[in-house]
UniProtKB/TrEMBL annotation:
Native source organism of the sequence: Methylosinus sporium
Molecular functions (GO terms): DNA-binding transcription factor activity
Record-linked SMART domains: cNMP
Matching InterPro entries: cNMP-bd_dom (IPR000595), cNMP-bd_dom_sf (IPR018490), Env_Response_Regulators (IPR050397), RmlC-like_jellyroll (IPR014710)
PROSITE patterns found in the cross-reference section: CNMP_BINDING_3 (PS50042)
The Cyclic nucleotide-binding domain, residue ranges: 15-116
Cellular component, GO, one term: cytosol
Alphabetical list of Gene3D superfamilies matching this protein: Jelly Rolls
UniProt protein name: Cyclic nucleotide-binding domain-containing protein
Length: 145
């Protein structure tokens, strides 16, 4: 895929739609591409995380249970997996299994934070987007008296 196509595809993901073009270029060049076969685990529930992933091809099932129940969620191309892990240490809340051959772009936390440091305008937009989402989430919470 050409660089311009990679950048256009990253912009389809809400977190990256406001990134400066040079920030997206650095992200594209620096991220690691991983190929998964059907049935391969991208990660397992409870594992420590060091970043997020972008699914560029194939599908990934997110499963919280190991008892054969159907997947809670099936992700398609251009899904961002592990967004929280881009900015903070956490553990994986689910197991991610490739349902078919899949291509993943791995973005380490170190890379993401480096981009935010090198591109302050992008960092400001990311901060505003995260703040808006947290505000919306807080309003949706219902507390019982």
């Amino acid at each position: 895929m050409a660089l311009d196509d990679d950048i256009a595809n990253l912009r389809r993901i809400p977190l990256f739609e406001d990134f400066e073009i040079e920030a997206l270029r650095l992200l594209t060049f620096s991220a690691e591409t991983k190929l998964l076969r059907a049935g391969d685990a991208l990660f397992r529930r409870g594992e420590p995380s060091d970043g997020g992933f972008i699914l560029t091809n194939g599908s990934i099932a997110l499963e919280k249970h190991d008892d054969g129940r159907p997947a809670e969620r099936v992700l398609r191309p251009f899904a961002l997996i592990g967004e929280t892990a881009l900015i903070t240490e956490t553990t994986r809340p689910a197991t991610a299994i490739a349902r078919e051959p899949a291509t993943i772009l791995k973005i380490t936390r170190a890379l993401f934070l480096r981009i935010l440091e090198e591109f302050p305008a992008t960092a400001t937009r990311v901060r505003a987007r995260v703040a808006a989402r947290l505000t919306h989430f807080a309003k949706e919470l219902k507390f019982e008296p």
